[in-house]
Amino acid sequence: MLDAFAKAKQAEIAALEALAAAGDFPAPWAGERPSFVESLLRRGPGAIIAEYKRASPSRGDIAPELRAADVAMAYARGGAAAVSVLTQEEHFRGRLEFLDEAAGCGLPLLRKDFILHPLQVRRTAATPASAVLLIARMVPVERLALLVPLCRELGLTAVTEIFDEADLHRARQAGARVIQVNNRDLDTLAVNLDVSRAMVARRIPGEIWISASGITRHAEVAEMAAKGYDAVLVGTSLMEGGDPAGALERLRSGEGET
């Protein structure tokens, strides 16, 4: 799947290169970006990054009728620490404009997409996003080592996603400080929370750690917090059913769990 995701981004990168060559590249966002890290630390351990996710390759359509602005506001009212916004079009039915629509919630926004090129980072900096996802195994470590400091230079937090120890080594080589452990294998789409349970033993002081994918219950949020994660990222289980506000409330309270 990672190869398919990377292939799907080539047209976007070519369009950004054409904009840059023509001198028409969008200017950086002039507004305030709430601190992604500070918000997680203020709410954590157990902070929730709630995701606006309309579809996925594993589930198909999830909630394409829900608007980014409405969902982000519901998440803010429900106590989320940040909002992750999927912007990838082909496989997730996302759009970059969803970041602008979600910005009114006042929470830090994480752009979740497949970022392979510095111009994608610069384009993200032209939106209200506070953070951007980088996937360690999708680019050579030399490219990752350019993207991480570029994010910092542009006022964005680089959230570097890993799946195993090799990815963690690459992330640290690139200077990453915010580490997201994905419990979903993006090659097979299988989910296993044991990935997060095992990887957190490799955490070192000064890093921010996030567990992502497969978390559906308050007990799992509490478990990840107890094991040393600053936050969890939750998408599908909040969006399916068409009531993200209620789903977030139940996830935070544990109401109805046995």
Tell me what you see in this structure.
This protein is 40% helix and 17% strand. The chain is α/β, with parallel strands linked by helices. It has one domain: Alpha-Beta Barrel (TIM Barrel). Strands 1-4-5-6-7-8-9-10 form an 8-stranded parallel β-barrel, surrounded by 5 helices. A two-stranded antiparallel ribbon has the order 2-3. Strand 8 (178-182), helix 9 and strand 9 (208-212) form a beta-alpha-beta unit. The protein is globular. It starts with a helix and ends in a 5-residue tail after the last helix.
Counting helices, strands and paired strands, the structural category is alpha/beta
Q: Low-confidence stretches at least 5 residues in length (pLDDT < 50)?
A: none
* CATH fold-level topology: TIM Barrel
Helical proportion?
A: 25-40%
Q: Rg, please?
A: 17 Å
The major sheet is characterized as: 8 strands, parallel, barrel
SSE string, helices as H and strands as E: HHHEEEHEHEHEHEHEHEHEHH
Overall pLDDT metric: 94
- Write down the domain tally: 1
Give, in spatial order, the strands making up the sheet with the most strands: 1-4-5-6-7-8-9-10
Approximate strand percentage: 15-25%
User: What is the highest CATH level, the class?
Assistant: Alpha Beta
Distance between the termini: 35 Å
CATH superfamily, called what? Answer: Aldolase class I
Shape: globular
> Could you say what the CATH architecture is?
Alpha-Beta Barrel
- Output the number of helix runs: 12
